[in-house]
Amino acid sequence: MDRLDDDPRPRALRALEAVEVTLDGGETGYVLPDDTAPVPSPGPWVALLPSLDPTVMGFQSRMWYLGSHAPTLFDRTGNAGPTVWADGRIIGGWAQRQTGEVAFELVEDVPAATRRAVSAAAQELAGWLGDARVTPRFRAPLERKLAQS
């Protein structure tokens, strides 16, 4: 490892003078020294992310945003299928059918307002995709099921 004496940070984080912080869930993260103020809540939000999105794939420890849903939303080799997010957590998956419809299924109970927001996001995505069809190369069980429905 590239570390000095008792400083546990890698050289790049030392060079940036990164500050250790505790993330939600108790894991350790690092921020720049001028970025230590609490972050205000962005308010409620939803997003439909494509398969293999770096947001989903970029963490070895995924429990803090994925819960126990990996077998449904990831293929057998660990590739993420299309996911539905709300307020920083994965709450479901989605697929585009041959008709162009973007179908989704939620794997967590959410308030009615969140479900309506996901439905609106799915309709918006379908409109944005238009005549294009999206079929992930690595198909997760829920995506495959929704695409065939």
Provide tags for this entry:
single chain; 149 residues; alpha+beta; 4-stranded antiparallel beta sheet; two-stranded antiparallel sheet; 6 helices; 29% helix
Largest sheet: 4 strands, antiparallel
SSE succession:
HEEEHHHEEEHH
Distance between the termini: 50 Å
Spans of at least 5 consecutive residues with low confidence? none
Sheet with the most strands: spatial strand order: 3-4-5-6
Structural class: alpha+beta
Annotate the secondary structure layout.
Elements: H1 11-15, E1 19-22, E2 28-31, E3 46-49, H2 54-57, H3 63-66, H4 70-73, E4 83-86, E5 89-96, E6 102-106, H5 112-129, H6 141-148
Antiparallel strand pairs: 1-2, 3-4, 4-5, 5-6
What does this structure look like?
With 149 residues, the chain is α+β, with helices and mostly antiparallel strands. The protein has helices at residues 11-15, 54-57, 63-66, 70-73, 112-129, 141-148, and strands spanning 19-22, 28-31, 46-49, 83-86, 89-96, 102-106. It has 6 helices and 6 strands. The strands form 2 sheets. The chain has a 4-stranded antiparallel beta sheet. The protein has a two-stranded antiparallel sheet with strand order 1-2. A hairpin with a 5-residue loop joins strand 5 and strand 6 (102-106).
